[in-house]
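Troubleshooting: if your tokenizer reports a length mismatch, compare your output against this known-good record of 85 residues.
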Amino acid sequence: GREGPTVTMGSNLALLITNGLARPYAGQWVDVGTSGVGRTAALVVDEERLAAAQRVACAVGGACGMAMIFDAPIGGILYMFEEVT
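Known-good structure output:
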């Protein structure tokens, strides 16, 4: 039906926003320099923590799409609970 593409677009948009906003907070800077000449740092990302944030954001984005297409905010919340559980 008409809700399929809207839910997909909401989920994908939420995933992109989560990647941009949550990735810096799911990582930790680690010193990887082996010599004393210079400091080299790398960002190590906790992929499990980021994946959990992405799953929740995709469910919320899909619920927003569902609520928008049917103009039913409570229905969107119920849809989100159905997808999360």
